Amino acid sequence: MAATARLTTDWIDVLPGAAALVEWRGNSVVAKGNAAFDQVLVADNWLDDDDLLGAACRRVISSGTAERALTIGIGEDFDQRSYSIDITPVGPQALVSFTDTTAIATATRLLRRQMIDDPLTGLPNRTGFVEALEARMEADQQPAVVAINLSHFSRVNDCIGPLGGDELIVTVARRLKSKLRDGDLLARTGGDEFAVIVSGVAEGADLCRVAERIGAALDQPFRLSDFELKVDCAIGCAGAGADDDAEQVIRHAQLALKLAKRTRRVECYRPAALQDAHRRFLVETELRHDLGSGALHLALQPLIDLGSNRICGFEALARWQHWRLGAVSPVEFIAVAEDSGLIAALDSQMMDCALATLAAWDERAGRTLDVGVAINLSAVELTNEDVSERVADALRRHGIQGQRLTVELTESAILADPAKAAEVLDRIKATGARIAMDDFGTGYSNLALLRRLPIDILKIDRSLIGDMPTDPDKAAIVRAILSLAQALGLRVTAEGVETAETARLLAILGCNVGQGYHFARPLEGDAAYEFALARGA
Description:
Blueprint: E1 4-5, E2 19-25, E3 28-33, H1 35-40, H2 52-63, E4 67-74, E5 81-90, E6 93-100, H3 102-116, H4 126-138, E7 144-150, H5 153-178, E8 185-190, E9 193-198, H6 205-215, E10 222-224, E11 227-229, E12 233-239, H7 246-263, E13 267-268, H8 271-290, E14 296-305, E15 311-322, E16 326-328, H9 330-340, H10 343-365, E17 372-376, H11 387-398, E18 405-410, H12 411-416, H13 418-429, E19 434-440, H14 447-452, E20 457-460, H15 462-465, H16 472-488, E21 491-495, H17 500-509, E22 513-515, H18 525-534
Parallel strand pairs: 1-3, 12-13, 15-17, 17-18, 18-19, 19-20, 20-21, 21-22
Antiparallel strand pairs: 2-3, 2-6, 4-5, 5-6, 7-9, 7-12, 8-9, 10-11, 14-15, 14-22, 15-16
Helix pairs in contact: 8-9, 10-11, 11-13
């Protein structure tokens, strides 16, 4: 280092903050610091050319142009203090002024940590996860993302309370972290969602195996206080493509996760999934617009009494003809409605339309027709507390007696949560409406529950009816269902009656009602009304 001399000026000592006056005289550096400066900077090489501050001083003296807001840190780790520095030319000298910004720097670091870390688990949050993924992609590490969603966590939270829920989240985080390899990064990206960055794993089978190993952390039950909980999860994963950014990779993993919730297995992203997602978004957007516009309407399929061959009602089937999408399948738009929260509005509109049709027919005929209507309620409706009020309100507004309305729910929906189903169905039954269990025979029925649930009608699924005349096994199942229904005092409707032979066999076996193309395809408007009159309504 060049020799250092003292300047003779004393005015530097009266400055309120840490400051120093520097000057080059040949190869000598002349410096004077006040008392506050001596406490800040004790290093004897701070003016070396290879030091940030020394190089800045040389530039200011050479150019005569001030440099402001330089920052340096002095000290190590938690003892480090931060300073903002202004360097101002004073003739052939430079005045170096220090402002202590430690408090600001500390607050900034804490705020930064709050922005990128989850306060409960200490893991990176979504923001921190995205930044980490971007950094790895910039380093050309070709990472992959594994997205994990805890199934039914809200129920667990309701059962053990929010503090217990927090404890479970922390325990899940520890379990998942124990399954990571060196270099993998776990983050909590949402209330019940986690994500992992994995490197060095190609897409496809290898990535799925890694994801399955991570998910295996949740195989064993969790012990929390007096509870033992089994936590299931859905897992989707996606690798980073050459043209992807971090948000795209995460979005791809989320699309795979959504599919995994339906298939109940680990799913890897497929390019077609993005097209499917765009289609579902388009369908949701247009469905939201068309609800209430008249674009959705009903087709009515007759229900025929197999003993008398007279009509006893219709099943109302939702139909949607869109000006651009064409005829959208009910399988597609009902699933979208359930996912998007539109199902209550859709079910209510279809029920309203069905009851309005009955009221219009009664007025047209000048009497109350001996015909009812069956509507389908989504399984999601079993979680809606107001569904019975909507049924009662629709019956009241259209002046239809409750016994002319049958509410159909699938067997799987009813038996998924029997206690909740019984509560909701009891309230619906109180409106006078009848309850039908649809698709019976396709699931694992708990027969004992049938006695406790307010079921009036069993609808045998079409998969058992079509081949019944030639398939002894299916015929035996149908006989067993009919015997069960008779013992429980339930009526039975057979779906998918395609031939006269099937209709005759069902009538012989004691089935009450048939529905299918043998009698009629779904009808609309005047055609359904004329069919009803012709069949004795």
